[in-house]
Structure formats: C-alpha cells, structure tokens
Amino acid sequence: MDRFVFLVGGGVARGTVLALFALSLVLIWRAARLVNFAAGAMAVVAAYVAVGVAQATGGWWWGALAGVVAGGLLGAAVERGLMRYATTPLGGVILAIGLVMVLQSALGIVAGPQHVPVAPPVSDQPWSVGGVPLGSPYDVLVVAVALGLMLGLRLLFTRTTLGLQLRASAFAPEVSRLLGVRVARMRTVAWALASAVAALAALLLLPTELGLDPHATDVLFVLAFTVAVVGGLDSPGGALVGGIGVGVLMSLVTGYLGAGVTPIAVLALLVVVLLVRPQGLVAGVEARRA
Fold it and tell me: Would residue 100 count as lying in a domain?
C-alpha cells in the first residue's frame, strides 16, 4: 500500500506536466487544425535559453522566465515565418517535421550532443509520513505551477476579451473577420502562448527526468501527443484528465512491472481509446459546451 501511494503521487506530478504539454498541442490544434510536431524541438531551444540564463544569473526562476519568453517568441516567429504559408494540413506537418530536423541539428552544432544534468530549484527527495514515502517538495512545486497555469489559461479564455477573440478565431474565423477580429494576429498569439506553455512543461521535467540535450523532449512529445488524443484534441479539460491518467498509469506500470512494459501500456491505452471513443474522453462534453 505504501508503494502504491508513492507511485500514485509521483504519477500525478508527472501527469500534470504531460497535461501541460498536451495543452499546448490542443491550443494549436484549436487555432490552426494542425498538430505541431515541432513542439518538442521548440521547447528544447527554450530550455537551452533557460539553462543558459540560470547559469549566468544563478537563479532558476530567472532562467525559467527567460525560457518561457523565448518559447513564446519562437512560437510567434515560427507561425509568422513558416506555418502561415502551409496551405494544407499535410503541408503543415511536413514543415513542422523539417523544422524539428533543423532545430535539433542546429542545437547539436552549437551546444554539442552531450547530456547535461539540470538541478531542481528545490529538493526532490520525498517526504516520509509514518514511514510512507510521499511526494517531494519539487513534486508539489510542479503540480502547483502546472495547475496554476491551467487555471490562468482557463480564466484567460473565458473571462477576457483576448480569450474571446482567440476562441472566436479558432471556431469561426470568417465570421470573426467580419466582426473586426484580426484572425491572423490571434493565430500568432495562440502559437506564442502554446509554445510558451510547452517550454514551461519541458523545464519542469528537465531536473527529474529529461536532463538537457538536443533530443531531450522527443519522448515527452510522444507522451503528450498520446495524452492529447486520449483526452480529445479539441478539449483543454481532456488534456488534464488524460495527462493525470497517463501519468498515474506509467508510474504504476513502471513501479510494479518495470520500465520496459510502460510504452506497451501507454500504447494499449491509446488503442483502446481510439477504438471505443476516437474523439477523446472529454471531447464530447467540450463540444456541447462550445
């Protein structure tokens, strides 16, 4: 039982980060009907900026802020300079995959292929209550930051004029143009916001799991894409549900059956969801509310 509690706690912490990264994919899908296959590579670029600033200033939070800003600027630049010219979904996918190769190759040339460990800003040693290991201070920080950001994004989309314009541009671009909304600008804002969120998600996992190298977020992107599909690509709420579910599943399978079985378990979950509810677990509810 003690082990189960520990594994579930770790799975929730990991799942919230997966949900955060999946949310960035959902934001771009809703804005442009495109899966951003370059999200992981773009997040790595932001992570290198964050680690560089953190080393220069001695402060992890300054580095995190710089990484989030860099992610947002890179997202806006990619949308305006590249993705805007994709005339078909397939063309957007090809451009994104090409961007992955360019960014990872450039990082390998500039920073080198070596793996760089990243220290967490607070302790990652688990607390023990009554002999039962619980989450660590860093796990609490990760969950708090991820859930706080998700709440902030929900308030942005439901309580602000900018959020209303972003939603209108995604669901009814032609009508939005007639009403004076600058749809192209809103799409750029969506890309910048999504890339900043993905950068923060990657930064939260760097100290405990990923470390830093040009391919650090490859697995993270695959897992986040799975989370987005499981929850529903049109559903921000589904990203949270799918993220926590996948995170807990991975933690339990790794703890009881071994890390080698974990990818099979995640793949099995994805196949079951696609067979039973291909639109995602929460997509139907979100569509009715919209």
Answer: yes
